[in-house]
Design brief:
The chain is of the alpha/beta class. Helices cover 38% and strands 19% of the residues. The strands form 4 sheets. It has a 5-stranded antiparallel sheet with strand order 4-14-15-16-17. Strands 5, 6, 7, 8 and 9 form a 5-stranded parallel sheet that branches. A hairpin with a 2-residue loop joins strand 1 and strand 2. The longest helix is centred in the N-terminal third of the chain and has 18 residues. The N and C termini lie far apart (52 Å).
Length: 460
């Protein structure tokens, strides 16, 4: 049995197409996509342009409940590091039920904005005292339940965390909920694999950062992951702040990305999250490895991290995608806009993300983020193409920011001119409609649970 939709305009991998019949099977995969057809009388019609759903390649779900709560000066010069201390205080109190409530609301928000898949970089594993739950996977399972309940596609990335700095320094009290031995991490992956398979989620691994794992442990855990699943995605925070680069140089004599490329089998399975501070040689080598640059523009701006040299990365044909990370904003259009605007401010140029093949900035951004995000997620979500998953969104052609425009102009207005009013009207994940008229069916219930969970956390 085929499910189908007729779109007057749809953004296919090779560009916009007119009069497109989209068909998918009961498993939620595209079976046929044909342009230039007349609409049949029984075929439902999309109410606006159809776009591929956007993968969100970097998320710390629990941080959604603290978004906006750290915007006051606590030090003479606040930075990522002072923010992290506040985040640790918040994380210390969170239980599985609260995590599930926060993640459920977050995934509803993501879906309503056009994110249809998430890579959950999950490091909050143990209880408040740093002890394993009776089921070591308790917190991970809360995230999987939230994804299943909302219809969010999931790549689960349990975080491997052991040390507090380069050279194997002892972890701090604030990190006690994150820690695993190598053996315990591999046991957790074995425990989670059938749970992920049961809901078509992808399981990978996230060595937190070069600060948080020793070279020996990194080698051992990657060998264990290869034995479990040689194609599993691997994500790592790297070169996010200049202080991290300086500490890595002091420890090893190398910058973080250069060290990683020399000491780990970095390839297209890897996502280098942030990678903000690279030198020219690192940009060239990292792009050539096939690794995806995981860019989180709203979070990087919020934390004062710095600006990724996107044009340099493009010149080396590097793959990239976007993530909402700490969820200071949950909207792919907003992250794409800020990515472009940060480049304009840095280079004092306009339309930086455009290239010779694609002069339309919004289209180049959307398609680039979909392609790189799909690779980072290691799931078949690379757009409107046969064999990929039927993850797609429909823009509201009657929205004031879009009405009367061409499809190219509608996408540009959605990204650059919607004034934080999302023009997304429908969202489909795995062939199932999860958002109608801009709202998820669980919206009211999920938001009430988020508010209650946040209230309880702030009260303690």
């Amino acid at each position: 049995m085929h499910h189908q939709l007729f779109a007057e305009h749809a953004l296919l991998p090779d560009g916009w197409a007119q009069d497109v019949l989209l068909q998918w099977n009961v498993q939620g995969q595209w079976q046929a996509i044909q342009a230039g057809l007349a609409a049949g009388p029984q075929v439902p019609r999309a109410t606006g342009p159809v776009l591929p759903g956007m993968p969100n390649l970097h998320s710390h779900a629990f941080q959604r409940a603290m978004a906006g709560l750290t915007e006051y000066r606590s030090h003479t010069q606040d930075s990522f590091w002072s923010w992290r201390a506040l985040m640790y205080q918040f994380a210390a109190q969170l239980g599985p039920a609260q995590l599930e409530a926060i993640a459920t609301a977050l995934y509803v928000e993501m879906l309503e904005s056009g994110f249809t898949s998430v890579c959950e970089f999950h490091y909050l594993h143990h209880d408040a005292k740093g002890q394993a739950y009776a089921d070591a996977a308790e917190m991970s399972l809360a995230l999987l339940r939230a994804a299943q309940r909302t219809g969010m596609g999931m790549t689960l990335l349990p975080v491997f965390y052991q040390t507090s700095g380069f050279g194997g320094s002892a972890p701090s009290q604030g990190q006690r909920r994150f820690l695993h031995s190598t053996e315990a991490m591999l046991r957790l992956l074995e425990r989670l694999r059938p749970a992920c398979d049961a809901q078509s989620a992808r399981l990978g691994l996230a060595p937190h950062s070069l600060r948080a794992v020793t070279p020996e442990s990194l080698h051992e855990v990657l060998a264990g992951l290869k034995a479990l699943d040689a194609s599993a995605p691997i994500h790592i925070h790297i070169a996010e702040q200049t202080a991290e680069v300086d500490a890595c140089l002091a420890w090893s004599g190398q910058r973080p990305v250069a060290w990683l490329l020399d000491h780990a089998p970095v390839d297209a399975r890897w996502c280098l999250v942030h990678a903000t501070h690279m030198d020219a040689h690192e940009y060239q080598r990292a792009a050539g490895s096939g690794a995806v640059a995981g860019l989180c523009p709203t979070t990087e701006a919020n934390l004062g991290d710095g600006i990724f040299e996107f044009k340099t990365w493009q010149n080396h044909q590097g793959a990239w995608g976007i993530g909402s990370d700490s969820h200071i904003a949950v909207n792919p259009a907003e992250d794409l806009m800020l990515l472009e605007y940060s480049q304009r401010l840095s280079l004092r140029q306009r339309n930086v993300a455009a290239n010779e093949r694609q002069p339309d900035v919004a289209q180049a951004l959307w398609q680039g983020a979909v392609a790189g995000g799909a690779r980072a997620a290691a799931r078949p979500i690379a757009g409107l193409a046969v064999g990929q998953q039927a993850d797609f969104i429909v823009l509201d052609a009657h929205h004031p920011a879009l009405a009367g425009l061409s499809p190219e102009q509608m996408l540009a207005s959605h990204v650059f001119a919607s004034s934080r009013q999302s023009a997304v009207t429908q969202v489909w994940s795995g062939g199932q409609r999860v958002v109608q008229e801009g709202r998820h069916a669980l919206h009211s219930e999920a938001m009430a649970e988020l508010v209650q969970a946040r209230h309880d956390l702030l009260k303690t």
